[in-house]
Amino acid sequence: MMGIAIFSYVLTASVVAVYFMSYAPLTNRLITLFFISTLAGCASVAPPEEKPQQQQQVIEPVECTPPQPIEPVVKELPPPIPVPVCPRPKPQKCPVCPAVIVANKPVLGEYELVNLEPPGFDYLARIDTGATSTSIHASEIIRFERDGQKWVRFQLENPTNKEPVILERKLVRKIRIKQAETGQDRRLVVMMTLRIGGIIKSVEVSL
Q1: How far is the C-alpha of 113 from the C-alpha of 96, rounded, in Å?
Q2: Helix, strand or coil for residue 204?
Q3: Half-sphere exposure (CA, 13 Å, Cβ side) for 131?
Q4: Paired sense of beta strands 139-146 and 183-196, if any
Q5: Are residues 199 and 117 in the same domain?
Q6: Are 121 and 195 in a shared domain?
Q7: pLDDT tier at 161 (50, 70, 90 boundaries)?
Q8: Which residues lie below 8 Å from residue 164, measured CB to CB, with a gap of 6+?
Q9: Do 33 and 122 fall into the same domain?
């Protein structure tokens, strides 16, 4: 609308100027032409376009949904596989063989069943031809005096029911035995009666 008004104004001014130039002197004509040119330049300039106002974007808050709890997955384990238990082998008793005599001497094997009297226990003994004395495993060894003599109280194990049995013997002497692990070891020696087959002897036994 503003451009149309300016154009109408210029057109009116041009008509007036033509009329004025027909009758006005030269100086006035020049002024009139300058004025018309200025108006024409103003009319040719288009008004600036109005930019549309940018609407501000309104950021709406987003509601965050709480995470749902994850349920644990429970798997049923298979039942345990039973492990077969092998029965324990029963201890085998060594058969009693009759004593063999060669050149008026009994023949003994590497292992022999030896009876200790008393208390009448049977032990599986290893026959060592290189040993100079007989030994037996004893525990709870205690030295004491009886009637002015030295005695020894010790404990043996019943090979049948594994129960302890306490014995007392008179002390004969003390010996030293060389061992590979602990070096020299002092042991007490007592007299005990041993029987192998039909052979019965009272021998020195170290505890």
Answers
A1: 8
A2: strand
A3: 14
A4: unpaired
A5: yes
A6: yes
A7: confident
A8: 139, 140, 155, 156, 157, 158
A9: no
- The answer to whether residue 39 is domain-embedded is yes
How far is it, in rounded angstroms, from Cα 132 to Cα 117? 22
For the chain, what's the residue count? 207
Q: Is the model's pTM score more than 0.85?
A: no
Residue 136: which of 124, 148, 147 has the closest Cα? 124
Secondary structure letter of residue 110 according to DSSP: S
Residue 48 tokens read as 């600036």
pLDDT tens string 2-40: 444 444 544 454 544 444 444 445 555 555 555 555 555
Q: Report the C-alpha gap between 199 and 192 in whole angstroms.
A: 14
Domain span at residue 30? 2-44
**Partners of 124 in the beta sheet?**
113
Helix ranges (DSSP H) in 113-158: none
Between 198 and 29, name the one with better pLDDT: 198
Half-sphere exposure of 110 (CA within 13 A, CB side): 0
CB burial of residue 202 (10 Å; 0-12, 13-18, 19+): exposed
Run of H or E including 10 = helix 2-23
Number of domains in the chain: 2
Amino acid 170: pLDDT: 93
Residues 34 and 126 in one domain: no
